[in-house]
Structures are given as C-alpha cells and as structure tokens.
From TrEMBL:
Domain 3-hydroxyacyl-CoA dehydrogenase C-terminal as annotated: residue spans: 195-262
Database matches in SUPFAM superfamilies: 6-phosphogluconate dehydrogenase C-terminal domain-like, NAD(P)-binding Rossmann-fold domains
Name of the protein this chain belongs to: Crystallin, lambda 1
Family in the record: Belongs to the 3-hydroxyacyl-CoA dehydrogenase family.
Species the sequence originates in: Oreochromis aureus (Israeli tilapia)
Length: 315
C-alpha cells in the first residue's frame, strides 16, 4: 500500500452512472487506497454511491473485502459530486461508466477534456465500442484508452486495456500498474479490434452453443453443462493456449501436429454467422423463469460462486 501523501498527490476519479460497473470501479479504486470522486450526470444521483457501506461491510464480514483497508477506511475515501468540474479537480485518472451509446460517451469525454490537465488519463469502460470512435472528439488522444472490465468486476479480475491508435505507451503502462495495484488482472491489447479479445472469444462460444441448440444437437441445459462442468473447470485456472500445451506429451507444437487436422475439419463445419433465433426460446425460461425474482436469485448465486472461486484462486 502506498503512503497517504502519495495517494493524495494523485487522486483517482470515477465518473459514470449508478450501475454495477460504476459501483464496482469505485469499490476497486478505494480498495487500493485511492480517493474516489464520483460524478453522475443525473443531479442528486451520485450520492447513492455512498450507500455502498452495507455491501463493503458484508464483504468484510465474509473475509472477501479487497485491499488492506477496512470497510470504514475505504468508505471514507469516497465522495460524490453533481458538478463535473469539481469531480475532476486534481484527477490523474478518469474512468467513465455511462451506458453503451457512442454519442453519449463522445460527449462526456469532450466535456471532461475541458476540466482536466494534459497528463490526466481518460479511460472508458465500454465493452463494444472501439477507442477510435469513443475518443473521436477528444483533442489529446494520446492519453485515452479503453479499460474494459468483466461483469461483475469485483469478483472477476480481468481488465482489457485497449489503446487508441494514438495512445502513448506510458499511458498503457501507467494504467496497467494502476489496475494491478487495485488487484485486477490487466491484459494489454496491442491494437484496437471490434469486440476486443474477451468478447470475440465469447462470441465464438455463444455462436456455436446457439447453433448446436438450434440444430437439435443438444439441449439448453446440457450445452451449459458442457461449459460449467467441462471446459469451464479448467479455464477457470488455465487458458486455451496452456490447455493445449499440457494436453500433449511434448507441448503445444506436439498438440497441433496431432490435432490440427481434426480442428480444421470441425471448424469447416461451423457454417455461416448465426441469426440467433431459437426455435424453442421457452426452454431457458423453463429452467430459470424470466421474472425479476428468479433472475435476481440466480445472479446472487452466480456472484456467491464467483466470490468463492476468487477466494480459492487467491489461496
């Protein structure tokens, strides 16, 4: 943990909405000992962030609170503002969390640039918009990047750092260090690409899972088991490249010499991009009813499992 004086010299800022991502970023930054100023473009709404007390206390009681500070100490680092210029005063890092609408993000970054120094890093949480579009109205694009978290960020540590074509290397390095300090697991993309890395991999999984269900090969329930009781068991600890490396006597090159022909044959059978129209859309809702009560319960269950998994990986 860095000293208090150093933390005050570089104050981490938070700007965004009252959704899960904004709350999670605030919790992560205070866990690293940073003062966090929160701004919301709906007057009076940002004060609701201060209700994080209950969540942080519960995490502390479950021994899952991130960082070295107590819940009370972390809460003391939070403040909220209805005025953007006040929220940005003294910032060294800004994390935007507004909803996924390009024009809204472009507008807020255009506004923010008027109130921050030239060395302040401007970061977006977008999951699907490339930096060259998000920051098109920013004059100094060398300090801009996307820091894309995974939902829910407090339990899933990955953050994709995606540069604008003009982003300075030092900005990527500083953001990587910041994310590491607050306990996240940042990965560096060398250039922007639609979907970044995580969503491109996820899209491939979704597309083939959807195809197998749509074509009557497997049920919704069982395709989820393919992941949760199969691939997901090892992917929680090692990735696809290491999986291949460990699944042949002489490593990755040996694996490909043995299985590349079969992989290519299977890939050639995938067919065109899916339209994502299920012939049996009710099957998922039969497994988990689509009302808010059932969905919220399953989301809570998911978060509890992710909390336990995070603790296991930490141990």
């Amino acid at each position: 943990m860095r000293g208090r004086q150093e933390n005050e010299a570089g104050v981490s800022k938070q700007t965004g909405t009252l959704g899960l991502i904004g709350r999670s970023w605030a919790m992560l930054f205070v866990s690293g000992g940073y003062n966090v100023k929160i701004y919301d473009n709906q007057p009076g709404q940002s004060a609701r962030f201060l209700s994080l007390r209950k969540q942080l206390v519960e995490l502390e009681e479950a021994h899952m609170l991130r960082g070295e500070l107590s819940a009370a100490q972390q809460l003391a680092l939070l403040s909220s503002y209805d005025d953007l210029s006040q929220a940005l005063d003294g910032a060294f890092f800004v994390q935007e969390c507004v909803f996924e609408q390009l024009e809204v993000k472009q507008s807020i970054f255009h506004d923010m640039e008027r109130f921050v120094g030239k060395d302040v890093i401007l970061s977006s949480s977008t999951s699907c918009l490339v930096p060259s579009k998000v920051f098109s109205k920013v004059q100094n694009r060398s300090r801009c990047l996307v820091s894309h978290p995974v939902n829910p960020p407090y339990y899933v540590k990955l953050v994709e750092l995606v540069p604008h074509p003009e982003t300075a290397a030092a900005v990527m390095d500083t953001t990587h260090a910041l994310m590491t300090k607050v306990g996240q697991a940042p990965v560096l993309l060398k250039k922007e690409i639609d979907g970044f890395a995580l969503n491109r991999v996820q899209a491939a999984i979704i597309a083939e899972s959807w195809r197998l269900v749509q074509d009557g090969v497997i049920s919704v329930k069982d395709i989820d088991l393919v992941m949760s009781e199969g691939l997901g068991m090892r992917y929680a600890f090692i990735g696809p490249m290491e999986t291949m490396h460990l699944n042949a006597p002489k490593g990755l090159e040996d694996y490909m010499s043995r299985y590349s022909e079969n992989i290519t044959r299977v890939l050639s059978s995938f067919g065109p991009v899916q339209l994502f129209l299920l012939s049996r859309p009710q099957e998922m809702c039969e497994l988990i009813p689509c009302d808010q009560q059932h969905l919220s319960a399953r989301q809570e269950r998911r978060d509890q499992f992710l909390m336990r998994l995070a603790k296991l990986k930490k141990d």
